[in-house]
Amino acid sequence: MTYLQMAWRNLWRNKNRTLITVSSVFFALVLALFIRSIKIGSYNHIITSALSLNTGFIQVQDTGFFDTKSLENSMALSDTQITAAKAVKGVKSAVPRIESFALASLHNRTQGVSVIGTDPAGETAMNDLKSRVTKGKYFLSDSSKSVLVGEELARRLGVKVGDTLVLLSQGYFGMSAAGAFPVDGVVKLPLPDLNNSAVYMPLGAAQWFFSMPNRVTSLVIMLYNPDQENKAAQKLKKIFSDDNYDVLTWRKLIPELVQGIEFSNASGLIMLGILYLVIGFGIFGTVMMMTSERHREFSVLISIGMKPTLLGVVLFIETVIIALIGAVLGAVVSLPILLYMRAHPIELSGLMAQVTVQYGFEPILPFWVSASLFVHQGLVVFIIALLVSLYPLWAVNRLRLSDELRS
Predict the structure, then answer these.
(1) How high is the pLDDT of residue 208?
(2) DSSP string, 55-83
């Protein structure tokens, strides 16, 4: 009889004891998977929500635009380059934009605004801008010379659909830029800064306004999956290999968001470490109970000639089997639930929903599912179970056979 067969039979001589120990590993893994899935899902949700209306995951810019946000550092892109960027695996949309500033005026009210010239169809594909129109209508065509204004900006200036908004700015190479644009609609944007200042117009209208035909300040790339960021960036660098272009990821473009997520992730890892500690003690408690119940059994085996070392090997194999069963069951049970929760995220309500909306994010609790999630969490819980298995080995070597056999 091999040690594996002996360990397997030992486990099922007392089914209740084995099931309790398996359950401790099972629930530990399920809890770890759910907590980590929510945490990473929340990060991805925040990143995607913020980037879809802002920088995108990746931007192609002129080499000088990042340091000096000047229209002089704009660039000319060919249709071939844009088409090639859209064809990169993982790219959801590639939207050419002109982003600058202007002074907006209506009657006796004025305010500084962010002017965003964009492809109407591409912008909607990237962040569903069309569905955010609360009053009026979306751009009728790419050639339209009208604007959409943020809801809070419209309130401050007293803008209504059909009004004419006057914009004053500085155009390409220092030329003056002035124009009167009819307001087609008002959009409610989840990011407060944009809602307070954004003026959207079709790309052609922006190129006319800033006197920069066939030029843009950036090509905004949106991805289907944040995990594809590095691969997509490498492929885009091959397309825009000229020294006049920079391919920048959002981590370079919005370092403050990166810092916020890293801080949150660090605190999340501390909480996860505390969870692992609780899990470890939970598994240790069940293993200690199992070991104490078997002191007499161990003593009998050693007294009839079984070496403590070999007994320790059998106990180690028993713990490995229990850890494997618990980990596999935890992964199998969690997978369909997490997949369902990813497709149907929990909708927040009450004060929590209000706070989430205030920060510019959809009030949901998203879940994240990937193979790495199960591998990492399963491996950690399995290692914890193996470390706990050292206790039975220590207990066997400290047995006093005369005391145990006499009891």
Answers:
(1) 93
(2) T-SEEEEETTTTTS--GGG-B---HHHHH
